[in-house]
Every structure is written in C-alpha cells, then in structure tokens.
Amino acid sequence: xxxxIKKNQKFNIIPENVKGAxxxxxxxxxxxxxxxxxxxxDMKYYRENGDVELFTVVDDGMLYFKSKVExxxxxIITIKMPEEHEVIQRREHTRVPFSAPxxxxxxxxxxxxxxxxxxxxxxxxxxxxxxxxxxxxEIKFSLDGKIEISAFFHPIRVKVEKKGKTVLSGxxxxxxxxxxxxxxxxxxxxxxxxxxx
Length: 197
Description:
This protein is mostly beta strands. The protein folds into 2 domains: 10-88, Pnp Oxidase, Chain A (Roll); 96-195, Thrombin, subunit H (Beta Barrel). Helices cover 10% and strands 52% of the residues. It has 1 helix and 13 strands. The chain has a 6-stranded antiparallel barrel. The longest helix has 19 residues, at 177-195. The protein starts with 9 loop residues before the first strand and ends with a helix. The model has no long low-confidence stretch (mean pLDDT 84).
C-alpha cells in the first residue's frame, strides 16, 4: 500500500463526524504509517484511534480506504497504513442506486420527484408533473434521513415517458464542499457494500 500513498499526494479525509471532512496532503510515508497535514481549525474532529476514510482520484478511478488515527499533532495526523484499499470505477464520481423523494423548485413552483441514482456530480430522477426542462432548479434531499443536501440541479438529459413521467439526468451546481464530501462518502459506502455482497 505504501507505493499507492505517496509524498505530496492530496486526499480528502473524513473523520467519524463528517463535519470535520477536509483536504489533506501526505507529508511522509513508511511501511506502517503515513503523515498528513490538514488545516489546524479541522483538528478538533480527529482523535487517536479514531476511524478515518480517505479518497482521491487516481488514473484507474477513485482510490478509497479506511484506517485508524495513530496520533494527532497541531496540524499533522499520523495514520496507520491500511492493509487494503479499493479503486472504484473509472468515472470521476461513483454512481449508486438511491431511492428517495427530492424537491425541485423554480420560479415559485415546487415539484415532487423521486431519485433513482446518485453521485457527487449529479443524479437521475423521475417527475410525474408537467415540468420545465430548460432551467436550473433549487434541489433538496436527504441522505439516509440524516444529512440534508441543498444545491442547484441542471438537467442534461431529458426523457419523456408514458403516463406523464419525465426522467431527468443532471448535474449539481453550487454544491457546498461539505455536502459533496457527504455524498462521496455515502456513495463509497454503498458501492463497497455492493462489491462485498
């Protein structure tokens, strides 16, 4: 695993409390541990022996692994070298099945839709109302009923089906970094569960 984690490599790191999700840079690696530097204001979310998840984009897709914090300094965290890792998909954002109610809003109108899949880049959803497809929408939905996500949704592909059903595939715009990290974490967990079934 040491050759996969390299000095100066950038990762996104997620502690047990997703509010502490941050970007980090690898400063040092050896066979057992590696050090990362993060912003000092985010250090309060990290503790010795705490669980962390890390991911980054690599040539083959997304590199993802879980590990434990060995020690915490002023702005440096020493992490145990993971025994295993996964490279998930070749696309930039992992897409997973996701069934949840979604609200789209534009010009004072609100549309109730149902999502069928999700990634940190966007989602696919179905709407059973007459909906304008050439505009951007405010979008709100919840991950597992816990984390509320708000952003804008820009339709890219539109398919009108029978019985008034419109299927929209689109991308997120103005998605907060913390929300993007929460979606990435959710998708990785679901993808890992699917791989391990």
